[in-house]
Amino acid sequence: MGLGQTSLVTKIHFIISLHRYSHLTEVSITFYDYEGLELDGYKHKPSEIGVWLGIEGKMGLGEAQADVEDLETLAKQRSLIIGENDEEIIGLENIIQVRITAFLKLQEEMDEKAKELRTHMHEGHVAPTPTAAPESKLRFKYNIRRESSSCNKNVFFDLKGAGGQNLPVHAISVTLDGSYKWDSNHTWEILSVPGFNTRVVIKIAGNSFVLFSAGRQGQTIEWRDGRECHDSTQVRFRNAKDGTYLDLLSSNTANGTAFLTYNGHGGANQAFKLWKH
Fold first, then answer.
1. Tens digits of per-residue pLDDT, 220-230?
2. Is CB count within 10 Å lower at the N or C end of the chain?
């Protein structure tokens, strides 16, 4: 380099431009004069950089290039991790969707079962439409006369004092000469029992009281309001429940003799005739 060139070099300054690309770090040096004009012939290739930057410059460029390579490696690893995570996330989303579908189906089934249960409970608490109970039918009215009556004395059933007395039902002797005045306490009604061909209810004609057996041998028969009647009070001459028979105590024909329920023995005091009205 001549003196003129050396002088020129001392009068210029240089600019170092670093250009970074994805796979290459390029370093170029361009010289300008003080008027800002670029000087021809003073561009240098990367291999000539060491002349101007020295050994430390070369080492700095190597480290920079290594850093770039490290960053590229990290970027690739990051992309790989993201890809793997994407697949895992997609798999988890599919599992969640399957479980949501199963849950919704189970919820639908539970709602249906709850609806059936509510319907069943409602039906169980709804009172059935009441149906009219079969009623006993009046077949005929009669007087009950003891078969062992003698001469012109006839012993009949009588509801003492129209009910509420003790004895409730007793015997009354009547002379059948037309002089005796009958009343409702002597008149009884036979009513058929629904569902049976051989059972009857004996009811006093004057009110709603019926004859029934207390269910013990030797127990006097009693009367009860027909509105309180149950199967146990459905009687005829042989009580339908306990099998005892209507019995005139000791075959006594005197007025006020009690009628009992007693085990059947075939005696005259258990034999009666019905006098229909």
1. 555 555 554 44
2. N
